[in-house]
Design brief:
With 438 residues, the chain is an alpha/beta fold. It has three domains: 1-26 and 276-380 and 388-407, Beta Barrel (Lyase, Ornithine Decarboxylase, Chain A, domain 1), CATH 2.40.37.10; 27-275, TIM Barrel (Alpha-Beta Barrel), CATH 3.20.20.10; 410-438, no CATH class. The protein is built from 13 helices and 19 strands. It has helices at 8-17, 27-40, 59-66, 77-85, 102-110, 122-130, 166-178, 199-218, 244-259, 275-278, 310-314, 410-414, 421-433, and strands at 22-26, 48-52, 71-74, 93-95, 114-117, 136-140, 147-149, 152-155, 183-187, 222-226, 268-271, 282-293, 297-301, 320-324, 338-343, 352-359, 367-370, 391-395, 401-405. Strands 1, 12, 13, 14, 15, 16, 17, 18 and 19 form a nine-stranded mixed β-sheet that branches. The protein has an eight-stranded parallel β-barrel with strand order 2-3-4-5-6-9-10-11, surrounded by five helices. A hairpin with a 3-residue loop joins strand 12 and strand 13 (297-301). 45% of the residues are buried. The structure holds pyridoxal-5'-phosphate. Residues 52, 54-55, 73, 75, 96, 189, 192, 228-230, 272-276, 375 line the site of pyridoxal-5'-phosphate.
Length: 438
């Protein structure tokens, strides 16, 4: 059974201090996981995990990973800015963008980031926008067609906007070598939220073989192979977690079979995991506000899709545990006797965290934990219906809690209207209306 990382009593105490809804993060879980990742890849002395900032851009969480020597994988100006504010620069930033604005390339250059070119045309574009290409750069590969593993089709790169064709990749490498690049990397992201332990090893084998050919045919020094993100997590209770040690061993076998015989054992392995680093170590804490019985039973909670859009956007499953409330029973292990659609308050019928979900009987005021929101949770939030995004709270290893992002207020929502007198009037009103209740 999937268990939250907090007990009912702990959560009741936290929710007395911080009004729901909020995303809650588990420092201990984040630490044990990054330690396991680094240990699993310790056979590769140059290994580095560049945390995918887009998955969770909260600096207080990224800071934990930085303690372990992780870098930042950024793909936008703002993400670069966050990395910079955290003191991250140079080879500790992987800039893996696409359709990249000139200003983003300029900032990447200023921070001396490793630029991972998504397209061959971005090389001259970068030069025009930001000046000479950096000494350390990388290219993103798209093999086209379908990406298959033994257990079936994993994804459809032929339909994806990312990366260059093989022919373009060789040409891009020649261009970069001619421009004096000293170290080149190779990157691909071919499947998302993968299960089992075969994805990284299969991807590594493809990229290692390509790296050998790139080295032989262009004379480039291939310094690193970047396996990017895509390692999945078990959102459903019946799914097995990925075994990072088995994954790393699979990559090591490919390394020993392909790169070592080619005399390329100095290649560093990089990863840009987002979901695997943070996903299981966050949850969305929300409270039951309404129960509505029409043709189905609806449980209305105080969070909505603006706090977690994955179910609405992808039909993604997020497990839900009913915890109970102060003075009431602990329901976290209670049997499921009811079937609910768990909804938010947006005027949008896909604003449902779960459809036909079997849960214990819920009473108004009960706390619910929506699992696995640590990655692509808060980060994908938005403001439809004038709904504010929630706070973020970090549960420290010592059991204390820290507010690491306050909830949005109505004045945040209207702040960008300041360009007209009407807008300024709205802003003035919002200031009076605060604190906004959510
Ligand atoms: C989204 C993304 C990642 C992280 O992917 P996860 O599935 O969260 O591991 C890494 N690199 C790039 C370039 C991405 O776009």
């Amino acid at each position: 059974m999937k268990q939250p990382f907090v007990s009912k009593d702990q959560l009741v105490a936290i929710a007395e201090r911080y009004p729901t809804p909020f995303h809650l993060y588990d420092e201990a879980g984040i630490r044990r996981n990054v330690e396991a990742v680094l240990d699993a890849f310790s056979w590769n002395p140059g290994f580095r995990e560049y945390f995918a900032v887009k998955a969770n851009p909260n600096p207080s969480l990224i800071k934990i990973l930085l303690e372990y020597g992780c870098g930042c994988d950024c793909s936008s100006y703002t993400e670069l800015m966050i990395a910079d504010a955290l003191g991250v620069s140079g080879e500790k930033i992987m800039f893996s963008s696409n359709d990249t604005p000139a200003a983003d390339f300029r900032l990447a250059r200023e921070l001396d980031a490793v630029v991972n070119f998504d397209d061959i045309s971005h090389i001259p574009f970068f030069e025009e926008a930001a000046g000479p290409v950096p000494a350390v750069a990388s290219c993103r590969f798209n093999p086209g067609g379908l990406f298959r593993l033994a257990n079936g089709i994993m994804d459809n790169p032929g339909d994806s906007k990312y990366g260059m064709t093989e022919e373009q990749l060789f040409e891009a490498y020649r261009m970069l070598v001619a421009r004096g690049c000293k170290t080149l990397g190779l990157h691909a992201f071919l499947a998302s939220n993968t299960h089992g332990n075969d994805y990284y090893p299969a991807l590594a084998r493809i990229l290692f073989k390509l790296a050998v050919r790139l080295h032989e045919e262009t004379g480039a020094h291939v310094g690193f192979v970047n396996l990017s993100g895509g390692v999945g997590i078990p959102y459903r209770p019946d799914e097995e977690p990925c075994d990072i040690r088995a994954i790393a061993e699979g990559v090591r076998r490919a390394f020993e079979e392909v790169l070592v015989p080619a005399g390329m054992e100095d290649v560093a392995i990089c990863a840009e995991m987002g979901r695997f680093m943070m996903g299981p170590y966050g949850c969305l804490v929300t409270r039951a506000v309404h129960e509505k019985r029409i043709y189905k039973d609806y449980l209305g909670v105080d969070a909505s899709a603006v706090d977690l859009i994955r179910p609405a956007m992808y039909g993604a499953y997020h497990h839900i545990t009913v915890m109970g409330q102060a003075g009431g029973p602990d329901k976290s292990a209670a049997p499921a006797t009811r079937t609910y659609d768990v909804t938010g308050n947006l005027c949008e019928n896909n604003d449902k965290f779960a459809i036909d979900r079997d849960l214990p009987e819920v009473e108004r005021g009960d706390l619910l934990v929506i699992h696995d929101t640590g990655a692509h949770g808060y980060a994908m939030g938005y403001n439809y219906n004038g709904r504010m995004r929630s706070a973020e709270v970090l549960l420290r290893e010592d059991g204390s809690c820290e507010l690491i992002r306050r909830a949005e207020k109505p004045s945040d929502y209207v702040a960008t209207l300041d360009v007209t007198p009407e807008g300024r009037a709205v802003i003035a009103r919002a200031a009076h209306a605060e604190p906004g209740v959510k």
